Amino acid sequence: MAVLLAGGGTTGHVSPLLALADCLRRRDPATGVLVLGTNEGLEARLVPARGYELAVVPRVPLPRKPSTALLRLPGRLLSAVRAAERAVVQAGEAVGAPRADVVVGVGGYVAVPAYLAARRMGVPVVVHEANFRPGVANRLGAKLTRHVATTFPGTDLHGQGGTGELTGLPMRTEVTRLDREARRAEARAAFDLHPDAPTLLVTGGSLGAQRLNTAVVEGAAELLAAPAGGGPAPQVLHLTGAGKAVAPSGLPDGAVYRVLEYTDRMDLAYAAADLVLCRAGAGTVCETTAVGLPAVYVPLPVGNGEQRLNAAGAVAAGSALLVDDADVTADWVRGPLRDLLTDADGAGRLAAMAAAAGSSSVAAGARDGDERLADLVERAAGRRTEEAR
Questions:
Q1: pTM of the full structure
Q2: Beta-strand pair 125-129/147-150
Q3: Which of 57-61, 127-131, 219-223, 249-253 has the lowest mean pLDDT?
Q4: Taking a C-beta distance cutoff of 8 angstroms, is the pair 207, 242 a contact?
Q5: Which of the residues 24, 132, 136, 247 has an alpha carbon 20 to 30 A from that of 387?
Q6: At residue 387, does pLDDT exceed 50?
């Protein structure tokens, strides 16, 4: 089977594609996999690093309002579609076929030319939507196929004939197979953290989140103060995002505050943490829920509001809290966040949140999203699934 996977820009698009690619290759190492992306997105680094070939198309943003960019769209889109058509052929050549058996898209700039190229060439399309609220690209793609998959229950995205399938999100096996308790000592040693201190992980995703970065840095001195009743002081592992390194000042003597712009070992970051402060992108919500890590989600306050909806199931299940972006201040870090991390009231809220994530039926925490989506891809390509064999 030859598969063209289309998506890029951020890890929210790239990671599910790579998890699906890994799953398809585990099922059949002879599967041909080509990833369609741009030179500007993270896929330019992450895809080759994972051992897959990247085919490049021009980046074609879809203007949401009338503008001069809208006038240039037809010509730019046609150029991107032609590049995608060449990639469809290239994907097939890897297995001696005239074209790919199936095109899989996850939305974003790259997906639209891939969907249109597949339609023009008669190649089946699979659309996977990571967020609760679909974007423009996947709403277009869904009109071209009956093979549509979603991550969250209730997502309003259906293919031709009103069909759609809840698969969950494909995630890396490093995450889906993670035993946080068993890996904790290793993880904390890897990041040079205290082995027993309450540990806060801060991450805004691959691009970072300035609001989270600023609030935690400004409140760090009090956050990391030793508790009045004794015991180790809290510590922070802060993933700031590329180009957004921070340098907290005025920390107590011996305070542990580790700063990295990015890590390829999010599994170890999750294992090291007792609590994560983060945005509510689909990948982050799904991964933290799957590994049973209590979370405080701070939805991005711009866009179409999908991040708040992404987090709703986990919050309702009791495994996470939701805090508005405007409420994340240094005072909030010094007060409510520190109280939660250190169990200041003795209520054991973190333990209860972790148990809720591990035992709830929140679809976001499903660990077999890669297998479910691979089944759909094989069906779309006309291949029998493992069950049919």
A1: 0.89
A2: parallel
A3: 57-61
A4: yes
A5: 132
A6: no
For residue 227, give the amino acid letter. P
Residue with tokens 């590329």: 242
CB 205 within 8 A of CB 261: no
What is the number of residues in the chain? Answer: 389
Residue pair 114/140 in contact by the 8 Å Cβ criterion: no
Mean pLDDT over the full length of the chain? 90
Rounded distance between C-alpha atoms, residue 333 and residue 327, angstroms: 10
Is 42 within 8 Å of 9 (Cβ atoms)? yes
Nearest to 279, CA basis, from 214, 224, 366, 210: 210
**Tokens representing residue 140 in the block:** 């277009």
Q: Strands 102-105 and 32-37: what pairing?
A: unpaired
Residue environment code for 179-218, b if the CB has 16+ CB neighbours within 10 A, otherwise e: ebeebbeebbeebebeeebbbbbbbbbbbbbebbbbbbbb
Q: Give 374-380's long-range contacts (Cβ < 8 A, gap of 24+).
A: 374/20, 374/23, 374/24, 374/27, 376/126, 376/147, 376/149, 376/165, 376/167, 377/3, 377/20, 377/24, 377/102, 377/104, 377/126, 378/1, 379/147, 380/102, 380/124, 380/125, 380/126, 380/145, 380/147
Dihedral angle computed from the Cα positions of residues 375, 371, 315 and 225, in that order, rounded to the nearest 10 degrees: -160
pLDDT category of residue 35 using cuts at 50, 70 and 90: very high
d(CA 133, CA 309): 7
Across the range 314-339, mean pLDDT stands at 96
Q: How far apart are CA 12 and CA 28, in angstroms?
A: 25
Cα separations (Å) of 285 from 76, 84, 135, 298, 320?
34, 31, 18, 11, 9
- Model pLDDT, residue 198: 96
Q: pLDDT value at position 67?
A: 58
Kindly provide the b/e burial profile for residues 243-258, where b requires at least 16 CB atoms within 10 angstroms of the residue's own CB: ebebebeebeeebbbe
Q: In this prediction, what percent of the chain has a pLDDT beyond 90?
A: 71
The closest alpha carbon to 270, from 333, 190, 349, belongs to 190
Amino acid at 158: H
